[in-house]
Task: inverse folding
C-alpha cells in the first residue's frame, strides 16, 4: 500500500508532458474524476487505525504534487505549442505554384506585332461589335452586293431601337477604316484582334478566330513597297526569303493579291502542308482602293497605300504543328501547358 503511494509519486514526477495531448492524459490519470489517487483513498479502511493519519497525509501530499506538476506542465505545454506556430519549419518544401503560360495565339500575335513595330508600325484597335458601315460599306462592299457573302456574318439583333445595323466584325479590316477616319497620313498601323464568322466549327475552321491587319498610307506608296514589306515579314517570321503574289479579289483593294511563302519540299511535312506545291498561302493584300480612301476622307489623288490581312490561327498551327484549330479555343490545360517558354 505504502509502496503504491511511492510508485504513483514517481509516475507523477517522471510523466513526460510535451504536448497538449500528453497534458490531458496526465490530467485524466492523476486529477480526473476516476484518478488513481482516489483509488488509494478507497484503501483507507484497510489501514490500521494508528497509521490512518499518516496515510491520509501522504495521499494529500500526493494529490498536491499531481496538481503542482499539472500547473507546471500546463505552462510549458501551451507555451511550446505557441513556439511552434511562431517558428515554421523553413526547410519544408513550399506548396507548388502553377505558373501560367501564354496562349499560342498570343505568342504568335506578339511576335508578328514585334516584327512590324521594328519598321515603324504601331498597334491600333477597334470594336468587336461593329456597324455595317465600318465592316462593309466604307470598305467598298456596296449594299446588297454579293461580295458581302464572302464573309458569313453574325448579326446583332437589336430591339428595333438601335440607330444602325450591328454585327460582330467579320475581319479586322474595319479597323483600317476607323484609323483612316481619325488619323492623317502618314499612317502605319497593325491591328490584331478577334473576328467572327457564321461558319460550322471543324478542325480547319472556327466561328471565332484572330486576324492581324496592316495598313500603310503615305504619298507615293507603291506596289513594290508592299512587296518589300511582305518579304521582310516572311524573312523575319518564317525565315523564308521567297514569296509570290497571286492575283486575287477584295472589294477594298485594287489590285489585290494572295501572298504565298516558298516553303520548300524537303520533308514529308512540307508536302502535306503545301499540298505538294512547296508554297504556303499566308495572307491577302493589295493597294487600298481609292474609293476606300475617299470614304475615309483621305485625298486619293495625293495619297496611296497598301493593306494586308492574315489569320493568326493558321500561322500558329503551322508554327507549333497543331492539326486541329479547335484546340485553340478549348482552354485545355494539358494543351496550353505545352507552350511554356514559347
Ligand atoms: N479582310 C480580308 C479577309 O478577312 C483579309 C484581307 C485581304 C485584308 C486583303 C486586307 C487586304 O487588308 O488588303 O479575308
Result:
Amino acid at each position: 500500500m505504502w509502496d503504491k503511494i511511492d510508485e504513483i509519486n514517481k509516475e507523477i514526477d517522471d510523466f513526460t508532458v510535451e504536448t497538449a495531448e500528453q497534458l490531458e492524459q496526465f490530467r485524466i490519470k492523476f486529477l480526473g474524476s476516476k484518478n488513481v489517487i482516489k483509488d488509494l483513498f478507497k484503501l483507507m479502511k484497510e489501514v490500521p487505525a494508528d497509521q490512518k493519519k499518516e496515510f491520509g497525509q501522504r495521499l494529500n501530499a500526493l494529490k498536491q504534487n499531481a496538481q503542482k506538476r499539472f500547473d507546471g506542465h500546463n505552462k510549458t505545454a501551451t507555451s511550446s505549442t505557441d513556439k511552434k506556430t511562431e517558428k515554421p519549419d523553413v526547410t519544408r518544401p513550399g506548396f507548388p505554384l502553377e505558373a501560367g503560360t501564354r496562349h499560342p495565339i498570343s505568342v504568335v500575335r506578339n511576335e508578328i506585332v514585334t516584327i512590324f513595330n521594328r519598321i515603324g508600325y504601331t498597334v491600333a484597335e477597334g470594336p468587336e461589335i461593329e456597324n455595317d458601315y465600318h465592316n462593309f460599306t466604307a470598305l467598298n462592299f456596296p449594299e446588297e452586293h454579293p461580295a458581302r457573302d464572302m464573309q458569313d456574318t453574325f448579326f446583332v439583333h437589336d430591339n428595333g431601337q438601335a440607330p444602325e445595323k450591328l454585327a460582330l466584325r467579320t475581319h479586322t479590316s474595319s479597323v483600317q477604316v476607323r484609323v483612316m477616319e481619325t488619323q492623317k497620313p502618314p499612317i502605319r498601323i497593325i491591328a490584331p484582334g478577334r473576328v467572327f464568322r457564321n461558319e460550322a466549327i471543324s478542325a480547319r475552321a472556327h466561328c471565332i478566330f484572330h486576324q492581324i491587319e496592316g495598313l500603310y498610307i503615305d504619298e507615293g506608296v507603291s506596289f513594290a513597297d508592299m512587296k518589300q514589306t511582305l518579304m521582310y515579314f516572311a524573312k523575319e517570321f518564317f525565315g523564308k526569303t521567297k514569296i509570290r503574289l497571286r492575283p486575287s479579289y477584295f472589294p477594298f483593294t485594287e489590285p489585290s493579291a494572295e501572298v504565298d511563302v516558298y516553303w520548300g519540299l524537303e520533308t514529308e511535312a512540307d508536302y502535306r502542308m503545301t499540298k505538294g506545291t512547296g508554297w504556303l498561302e499566308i495572307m491577302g493584300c493589295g493597294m487600298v482602293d481609292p474609293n476606300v480612301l475617299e470614304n475615309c476622307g483621305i485625298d486619293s489623288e495625293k495619297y496611296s497605300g497598301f493593306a494586308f490581312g492574315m489569320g493568326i490561327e493558321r500561322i500558329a498551327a503551322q508554327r507549333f504543328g497543331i492539326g486541329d484549330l479547335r484546340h485553340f479555343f478549348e482552354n485545355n490545360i494539358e494543351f496550353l501547358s505545352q507552350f511554356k517558354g514559347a
